[in-house]
Amino acid sequence: MSTDCYVSPLSERYASKEMQYIFSPDKKFRTWRRLWIALAETEKELGLKITEEQIEELKAHADDINYDVAKEREKIVRHDVMSHVYAYGVQCPKAKGIIHLGATSCYVGDNTDIIVMSEALKLVRKKLLNVIAELAEFAKEQKSQPTLAFTHFQPAQPTTVGKRATLWMQEFEMDLEDLEYVLGSLKLLGSKGTTGTQASFLELFDGDQETIDKIDPMVAKKMGFEACYPVSGQTYSRKVDTRVLNVLAGIAASAHKFSNDIRLLQHLKEVEEPFEKSQIGSSAMAYKRNPMRSERIASLSRYVMIDALNPAVTSAAQWFERTLDDSANKRLSVPEGFLAVDGILDLCLNVVDGLVVYPKVIEKRLMSELPFMATENIMMDAVKAGGDRQELHERIRELSMAAGKNVKEKGMDNNLLELIAEDPAFNLSLEELQKTMEPVRYVGRAREQVDAYLAQVIYPLLEKNKEHLGMKSEIKV
Q1: Against a cut of 0.70, is the pTM above it?
Q2: Which residues are annotated as catalytic?
Q3: Residue 248 and residue 104: Cα distance in Å, rounded?
Q4: Phi-psi region for residue 444, left (φ > 0), alpha (ψ -120 to 50) or beta?
Q5: Which end of the chain is more exposed for a tag (fewer CB within 10 A), N or C?
Q6: How far apart are CA 314 and CA 328, in angstroms?
Q7: What is the tens place of the pLDDT at every residue in 204-263?
Q8: Three state DSSP letters for the chain
């Protein structure tokens, strides 16, 4: 590893090798050559004087890129595409005259960007499915574990640990829906020339409109796409990048919410992220178990959510058929958004796979609050025993305030049940009151909702995509 120049932490610490390769120079320049081959084949099939020998020569050197030649040429011409056209031609002397024929730089640049984003989205989709699958397993295991729910981070009606996990899962599922829509809508730029009018092809094919109409569909099919965008300037609309990065930002937002909840639960000692045997939580406080994975998820997620502003502003700032103020921004914002989300999903997969639940702590906290939540049931039982509903409501309000004061001001345990048992208006013994303290009575339909959501939504989704499941993630640091 080089130690005397900047290296992106996204590569060194967070993103997988698989995602890094998708955005690598090697992937880009190999795709350029595939596009030049597709164009030459299409032009030959449509009648231009291109020989099979030239095509075969291009195919023979599709992957053994002579980077040294391209690099030296770029020093002279200051143009990356023409440098690689030249380098390809050095390797393919018989075909050099037909490489890039009729095309402009965006033919390889923009089409490659779409291809790369498409492959990156497929990898994100795979990892997102695996996060959903792990959450589904966790939700199933914990569907019946009562826990204190919070609104405003204040104690509210109980839920179950599994039901809470479905809330995280549903947001990731919504992200998957958005991703699949955008992925399914991606089209190639095609080959439309310097301002999108295909004027160069009008010249090449002697004004034959019917033949020219076949170029884009044929190139798209050869590159594995259904179609090209019907109209463009020199580039595909930069709104495409906006749509793609918005999907990544949505995933980041879901991951951030999930990680926040885990961090809060770890503070409460109810649920913890994985903590390795030799892991150090603090350089000073040896006892600490900091939720560093969840904190990293939150940190990277904020980066991605802000990064999504880049393509939106770039799209808005394009002038007419083409300006070049998009280039430097795209080189940063798109790859790094994907690298960051890749790292986020690896972290999410790692955290969910190793979540530790502490039922005793959960039960203790729930039981400390449950008497307040059981008061309506207690009041109904007291009415059945002959009490007046309105009078009992007022007495419960007064006793609840007294019990809350004991907890907050005196540090006592919640003694609401004892206070009610001592009040003759209720005509209920402490033993009778304690029988109402079964948490499962207060979780509503949480368990049934978990079962229904898994059966009706998640399991069919996972069955449909079972060939993508089974991933595990390794965290570098």
Answers
A1: yes
A2: 152, 282
A3: 30
A4: left
A5: N
A6: 10
A7: 999 999 999 999 999 999 999 999 999 999 999 999 999 999 999 999 999 999 999 999
A8: CCCCCCCCHHHHHHCCHHHHHHCCHHHHHHHHHHHHHHHHHHHHHCCCCCCHHHHHHHHHCCCCCCHHHHHHHHHHHCCHHHHHHHHHHHHCCCCHHHCCCCCCHHHHHHHHHHHHHHHHHHHHHHHHHHHHHHHHHHHHHCCCCEECCEECCEECCCEEHHHHHHHHHHHHHHHHHHHHHHHHHCCECCCCCCCCCCHHHHHHCCCCHHHHCCHHHHHHHHCCCCCECCCCCCCCCCHHHHHHHHHHHHHHHHHHHHHHHHHHHHHCCCEECCCCCCCCCCCCCCCCCCCHHHHHHHHHHHHHHHHCHHHHHHHHCCCCCCCCCCHHHHHHHHHHHHHHHHHHHHHHHHHHHCCEECHHHHHHHHHHHHHHHCHHHHHHHHHHCCCCHHHHHHHHHHHHHHHHHHHHHHCCCCCHHHHHHHCCCCCCCHHHHHCCCCHHHHCCCHHHHHHHHHHHHHHHHHHHCHHHCCCCCCCCC
Q: Note down pLDDT in tens along the chain; length 477 residues.
A: 668 999 899 999 999 999 999 999 999 999 999 999 999 999 999 999 999 999 999 999 999 999 999 999 999 999 999 999 999 999 999 999 999 999 999 999 999 999 999 999 999 999 999 999 999 999 999 999 999 999 999 999 999 999 999 999 999 999 999 999 999 999 999 999 999 999 999 999 999 999 999 999 999 999 999 999 999 999 999 999 999 999 999 999 999 999 999 999 999 999 999 876 455 454 445 445 789 999 999 999 999 999 999 999 999 999 999 999 999 999 999 999 999 999 999 999 999 999 999 999 999 999 988 988 888 888 888 888 888 889 888 998 999 899 989 888 999 888 999 998 999 888 888 988 888 889 999 999 999 999 999 999 999 999 999 999 999 887 877
Exposed/middle/buried for 98, CB within 10 Å: 0-12, 13-18, 19+? buried
Distance CA 461, CA 440 (A): 30
Residue among 139, 151, 143, 140 at smallest CA distance from 443: 143
CA–CA distances in Å: residue 199 to residues 205, 210, 212 = 10, 14, 10
